[in-house]
Amino acid sequence: MNQPVSIDRRRLIACALAATTAGLSGILMPGPARAQNRLRTTNAEALAGGKRVLLGNLALACLTDRRRQMLIEGSGRRAGAASSNSVQTTLAGLTEADYQAAADAAHAAALDSLAAQGFEVLDASPLVALLKSKGLVKASGAEFSFAEGNRQSSKAALVGASAYGGFVPMPNWTPAGGGLAGLAMMGNVTAAIEVDTLFRQFARDNGVTVLGVFLAVSPVRIEASFGSDWRVPDAFGRGGQTRTGTLTTETGLSSHPLLTRMTVYPTGGGAAGEIALDDEIGIQGGVGTLADTSSDVVKGVQALGNVLSMFGGSGRSSNTTNYTLNADPAAYVAGTRALSGDVVKALAGGLS
């Protein structure tokens, strides 16, 4: 994405790391009063439904890898120079069972959030039975990579709540990429067309608004900051006004705005509408420990290259840092539950 993402966060107390799963429900501190979330919507007519809804699908895209690169072009007396700064983070410490627990916690929180906002939430089991009978429920755990623009990319695992028996693909939920990864996702893309038809028919036949929620959970936020610096020119002419840039990394769970959305099927059986967030909503801290896992070989090669560049007068430099987030499973599940409630509340604000 080319625009900076605004942040709306609640804080997860650090003692979550020492708490048990059973004791995590009360460790969230209330957040400050937040401004109206900015929403992106399509097909506004479909969003004008009643208060009788059915949560026909909820799934997570659990981000396991994130990469961002910043390229700073030289200026002034270093116009030909450029500096590269990149960060890559990898999520570790979670099993398939942990991801499933997170999806189930998110599903429960979504139902509670809808009910708290005055919606009558109906039993989804008849629709789930239809999905299963038509073979539209896929096994959880499939991974896909996607480009985010602005020198960013991520990898995510797809996990459906147990209430649906697995991951149920829907339109725009699994973007197909290039190469073998894209081919692997084509089965989901094809199934999503059938799911779309089934949900439209079910909404029309039963006079109920059918919702699907897709929550992309990012465990690490990478933020770029830019500035400038004045350096006294040396004998090689390196110096003058130069651009600078840094990448900072912060742990915590947040909704990735590129993927997170609510799909809405109106009671009349017409085309679905969508609600998405321009803002990132999240839970800060208490998710795990972040460690610099860049190899000594990589660090040595970079240092040598930067020194040679300095003596050669190019002024170019590069820095690549690899981080591993060792997640605490209980805190990840609790954070996902809290995050889901906040996100569903924000998305439901687009229903009229």
How would you describe what is shown here?
The chain is α+β, with helices and mostly antiparallel strands and 352 residues long. It is globular, with a radius of gyration of 23 Å. Residues 1-35, 75-81, 224-232 and 295-317 have low confidence and may be disordered. Strands 1, 2, 3, 4, 5, 6, 7, 8, 9, 10, 11, 12, 13 and 14 form a 14-stranded mixed sheet that branches. It has one domain (7-13, 36-348). Helices cover 27% and strands 37% of the residues. The chain has five helices and 14 strands. The longest helix has 28 residues, at 179-206.
Please describe the structure with a list of short key phrases separated by commas or semicolons.
single chain, 352 residues, alpha+beta, 14-stranded mixed sheet, 5 helices, disordered N terminus
Summarize, please.
With 352 residues, the chain is α+β, with helices and mostly antiparallel strands. 27% of the residues lie in helices and 37% in strands. The chain is built from five helices and 14 strands.
